[in-house]
Amino acid sequence: MGCVIVREGRVIGRGRTARGGRPHAERVALEAAGEAARGATAYVSLEPCSHTGKTPPCDEALNNAGNARVVAPITDPDPRVAGRGFEKLRTAGIEVRTDLLQHEAEEALGGFLSRIRRGRPRVTLKLASSFDGRIATASGHSQWITGPDARRWVHAARARHDAVMVGGGTARSDDPALTVRDMGVDFQPLRIVVSRRLDVPLMSQLARTAAKTPVWICHGPDADEALLQTWNGLGAELLLCALSEGQLDLSSVLAELGARGLTSVFCEAGSALAASLLTADLVDELICFNAGFAIGAEGLPAVGALGLDRLDAAQRFTLASVTPIGGDVMQSWRRAEQS
C-alpha cells in the first residue's frame, strides 16, 4: 500500500506500508509531512482502514492531521472496513474522491485483494522450458535451461513476492537455495516447500540455512514424527495441511498461507506441482520462459499429467505480454477473468 501527501502541487510526504503490515502507508506519509499536512490532499492506493488493530485507524489519523481531501481508487473489501473508512472521512468533513484508476489499483494490489476475497495469496507460476516444453533431459539434467538474463529476472521476481514455493521433488533434485541474490535487497522472501512426508534432504541448502532465512514446509498428517522434530530443530516452520486423494490439498496449503498473512507466492514448480496447481485452478499468473533449443519427447515435460481428454476442458489463460530477455522469450499469461 502507498500514500502520497500533496499540498499546492508539491509532494510533502510519502510512505508505504512496512513489511509485516505495520505501520500503514498513511501514517508514514503523515509523519513525513508533519504540520504541512493540514489542508493537503492524501492520495492513497486503498481506502484507509477504519478499525483499531495494533494501531489506531488511518481514517482517524488523516482527520487528526487536518487533511482536506482524500483520493483513493477502490474500496477495501476487508469486512472490517468495506466503505466505513470513506464514510467516516466524509462525516468528518473531508472531501473523498474514489473510483479512479480502479483497474490499475486492482492489479497493483492483487495479492492483498486475493487474500481478503479468496482467503489465499495470489499465485504466480513460473515455468522455464525448451521451446518444445521440456524442463530436463531424460537423465534429469536441467541446468541451465534459460540464460543469465532470465535467471536475473527470476531473482527480481522473488524479491517482489512474500514467498517462493517449490515442491518436494524440486527440493530433492535441484537442491535450490530459493534466495534473492545480486539484487541489492536487504530482506529475503519466505521459502516454502510442499512435501507431504517431509522427504527433503537434511543436508540440503534449505536445511542448512533454515535458522537464518525462514523455511516453511507444508506437510500432511502422515509425516514422520522424527522428521517433524528434526526440521523443527533446524528452525523450519511446519504447516500441517489436509490431504485430498492421497496428495496434499493445495487449496488447504494456500488457505494456510493466507491465514498466516501471505499475499503473494512465486512458485518455481516442477512438473508435478505445476500440474497440481493448474488442475486445482489456483494459478493467477503464468510466466513461461522458452529457450531456443529442443530436448525431445524423452525429456521431462514442464507440466505433468492433467487428465484431460477434451481441449474444451483445459483452463484458458489470456496473453498479457511477450518479452525477449537475453536469448530467451518470456510470456506472461493471466487468468481469463483478469484480462
Total domains, how many?
2
Q: Report the helical percentage.
A: 25-40%
Structural class: alpha/beta
Number of helices: 11
Task: Characterize the largest beta sheet: strand count, sense, and whether it forms a barrel.
Answer: 9 strands, mixed
The CATH homologous superfamily of the largest domain is called Dihydrofolate Reductase, subunit A
Spans where pLDDT lies below 50 across 5 or more residues: none
Give average pLDDT, whole number.
Answer: 91
CATH fold-level name of the largest domain: Dihydrofolate Reductase, subunit A
CATH architecture assignment of the largest domain: 3-Layer(aba) Sandwich
Order of helices and strands: EEHEHEHEHHEEHEHEHEHEEEHEHEEEE
Distance between the termini: 23 Å
Q: Radius of gyration from the CA trace?
A: 22 Å
